[in-house]
Amino acid sequence: MVDRTLIRDFAIDDEEIQNIMGDDTLMQEIAEGESAMDELYNELASNVDVNQIIEGTIIRVDGEEVLVDIGYKSEGVVFRDEWGEEEEAPEPGQKVQVLLDEIEDHLGFILLSKRKADRIREWEKIIETHKEGDIVRGNVVRKIKGGLLINIGVNVFLPASQVDIRRPSDIADFIGEEIECVILKIDENRRNIVVSRRKLIEDKRERLKSDILSELEEGQIRKGVV
């Protein structure tokens, strides 16, 4: 039930608002405050390198938000769901690697991302340890436009034409399987890797063929399967 007495007691009429806003001292304070907030924002923006990975310390967990001290005047925020179920739950005092995603507004609200930082670090690890032509093993995650998504630590693309020597009737049948592929192309700028299972199969067959031919001799009798 609404207490209308309280509404009358705390209501501010238009005339009173005009009187308050007409106070020159108040208006000057508001202007100075806005200017100070602008300076704070500009200072923060000049010192913060957006899209860099930095280490911070968790200050507290407020519901779905995790507040992180990253050494600036304003705290950063990471959403709680960026911690996977298999990971240790965020707790005050923990160190965490995060990506400085963006500065939201003049209040200096800094949005951070643990998930993006994890992906970038995994990508860098893959690039450091793999090159084009290397064989990798990963799980088929899902079917996407043009092929399959394979997880080898990061998600890589397996084109439909490169799934097998003869294209399967439904490449989705591979979802959930662990397969081997060869890296065809690494695009560091786009953070994209293209792999081929077909080439790996063809290369293995070619090596087997070469091995057999190298062992054959004129007049030799060999067993075969029709």
Please write out the topology.
Layout: H1 4-10, H2 14-21, H3 24-47, E1 53-62, E2 65-69, E3 76-79, E4 95-103, E5 110-113, H4 114-129, E6 135-144, E7 147-151, E8 155-159, E9 178-187, E10 192-196, H5 197-215
Parallel strand pairs: 3-5
Antiparallel strand pairs: 1-2, 1-4, 2-3, 4-5, 6-7, 6-9, 7-8, 9-10
Question: Main traits of this protein?
Answer:
30% strand; disordered N terminus; alpha+beta; 5-stranded mixed barrel; 33% helix; single chain; 226 residues; 5-stranded antiparallel β-sheet
Task: Enter the CATH topology name of the largest domain.
Answer: OB fold (Dihydrolipoamide Acetyltransferase, E2P)
Q: Average pLDDT value?
A: 79
Number of strands: 10
Described by strand count, sense and barrel closure, the largest sheet is: 5 strands, mixed, barrel
Side-by-side strand order of the widest sheet? 1-2-3-5-4
Distance between the termini: 89 Å
Order of helices and strands: HHHEEEEEHEEEEEH
Indicate the multimeric state. Answer: single chain
Please tally the helical runs, counting DSSP H or I stretches of 4 or more residues: 5
